[in-house]
Amino acid sequence: MREVITTKDGPQAIGPYSQAIKANGMVFVSGQIAIDPATQQVIAGDVAAQTERALKNLSGILKAAGSGFEKVLRSTVFLKNMGDFAAMNEVYGRHFASNPPARSTVEVSRLPKDVLVEIDVIALS
């Protein structure tokens, strides 16, 4: 069984994808960037501010799926500049303070809407 997850607590999809898919006890959340769900606009700010917004988006979508950060198994962080790793990691660490998930972090040449960071997660539902 496959369920599409949609919530106003995360930005609306800007392409042919779902905010998340829930299936077989798992939640697969699409990559989230620093878009404010209320305005559908990218927030102003550095990588720390953008990481915070992306994580708030992930939290809202996970909650809509009946999950949360404590159930995240895996995340992927995409950074425009690996020089921003420490700033991103400091914010990320506040949200995953205990028993953090497995994670990969990679530098990419460009992200949607020219943001500085994008994060996706896989969690238990």
Tally of helical segments: 2
Distance, first to last CA: 13 Å
Principal-axes shape call: globular
Structural class: alpha+beta
Report Rg. Answer: 13 Å
Largest sheet: 6 strands, mixed
* CATH topological fold name: 60s Ribosomal Protein L30, Chain: A
Proportion of beta-strand residues = 25-35%
Report the count of strand segments. 8
What is the CATH level 1 assignment?
A: Alpha Beta
Number of domains: 1
Low-confidence stretches: none
Mean pLDDT: 97
Q: Main sheet: which strands, in order across?
A: 1-2-3-8-6-7
Assembly annotation = single chain
CATH superfamily: RutC-like
Order of helices and strands: EEEEEHEHEE
Share of helix among residues? 10-25%
CATH architecture: 2-Layer Sandwich
Write a short abstract of this structure:
The chain has 125 residues and is of the alpha+beta class.
Account of the 3D structure:
The protein is α+β, with helices and mostly antiparallel strands. It has one domain (2-124): 60s Ribosomal Protein L30, Chain: A, CATH 3.30.1330.40. Helices cover 23% and strands 33% of the residues. The chain has helices at residues 47-64, 85-95; strands at 2-5, 20-23, 26-32, 35-36, 41-42, 72-79, 102-107, 117-124. The strands form 2 sheets. The protein has a 6-stranded mixed β-sheet with strand order 1-2-3-8-6-7, with helices on one face. A two-stranded antiparallel ribbon has the order 4-5. Helix 1 packs parallel to helix 2. The longest helix is centred in the middle third of the chain and has 18 residues, at 47-64. It is globular. It starts with a strand and ends with a strand. The mean pLDDT is 97.
